[in-house]
Design brief:
Pfam families: ABC_tran. This protein has 251 residues and is an alpha/beta fold. It is built from five helices and nine strands. The structure holds adenosine-5'-triphosphate.
Length: 251
């Protein structure tokens, strides 16, 4: 079976500085992979290069067995970028932004249909934004805009979700809702790759984590455990920068 993503020896240089330094990563269907690591370690660069948004300077990447430049089946991929303003300067409504998640499914011969509308309704419902559907997306708070971007990806009914810090700035109740939504998606066979500093309510869903440090994968396996002060009851966040005591250390 073709896997959603396979990167072999992936290297990226930005401004002539190495940002990814030889990454091997295969994402299997049905996995929920957390990409963790300190600020600037290359997490966003990794997932953007998996999607072909940043070209590799060496190595190889494939989406469903095809290099990104030749990949055509974009409806299989739902991408939630990091902290991007949803409006992009255009005064689009929330519903319009979420509907844009269906674009890869449309063609001259397949205009917007009742099925498309239902998918958009379900996505708005999943992120609790039905009541804001007619509002301008630009008027929303940062966390609400993030939820709209998640809804846009959900609306596309992709096979794989790629999410860059989907819960950054999102309140606790909405994080719980997102975790439930993703759990349902995974139960239906979808794959998830997400960048996260803190897993919060998504932690039980994670089937594997990789930790990047300075452009290299230095840990692969279960998400790193909190330790010391932070391991006390009531302090449940995960420290992505503390992998060194884990048994699955790679280097
Ligand atoms: N367009 C760019 N040009 C030059 N350097 C860049 C560019 N984008 C990112 N970088 C650098 O690449 C490194 C990795 O950035 P990246 O955004 O992938 O990190 P990250 O792990 O996602 O960080 P964060 O946790 O802060 O989101 C950083 O040192 C950053 O300064």
């Amino acid at each position: 079976m073709t896997v959603p993503f396979r990167m072999t020896g992936g290297e990226v240089r930005l401004d002539r500085r190495p940002v990814l330094r030889g990454v091997d990563l295969t994402v299997e269907p049905g996995e929920v992979l957390a990409v963790m690591g300190p600020n600037g370690s290359g997490k966003s660069t990794l997932i953007r290069s998996l999607l072909g948004l940043i070209p590799l300077s060496a190595g190889r990447v494939e989406l469903y067995g095809v290099p990104p430049s030749r990949f055509r089946d974009w409806k299989r991929v739902g991408y939630v970028p990091q902290r991007l303003s949803v409006g992009g300067g255009v005064p689009a409504t929330v519903r319009e932004v979420v509907s844009s998640g269906r674009i890869a499914r449309q063609s001259r011969f397949r205009p917007f249909s009742a099925a498309d509308r239902r998918a958009v309704d379900r996505a708005l419902e999943a992120v609790g934004m039905v009541h804001r559907a007619r509002d301008s997306a630009q008027e929303l708070s940062g966390g609400q805009q993030q939820r709209v971007l998640i809804a846009r990806a959900l609306a596309g009914e992709p096979d794989v979700f790629v999410m860059d810090e989907p819960t950054a700035g999102v309140d606790a109740a909405s994080q719980e809702t997102l975790a439930r939504t993703l759990r349902d998606q995974v139960a239906e066979g979808r794959t998830v790759v997400l960048v996260a500093h803190e897993l919060g309510p998504m932690e039980p869903l994670i089937t594997r984590s990789v930790v990047l440090e300075n452009g290299l994968i230095t840990h692969e396996g279960a998400p790193p455990r909190p330790r010391g002060e932070c391991a006390r009851p009531g302090h449940d966040h995960v420290h992505p920068h503390a992998p060194a005591e884990e048994p699955h250390l790679l280097s």
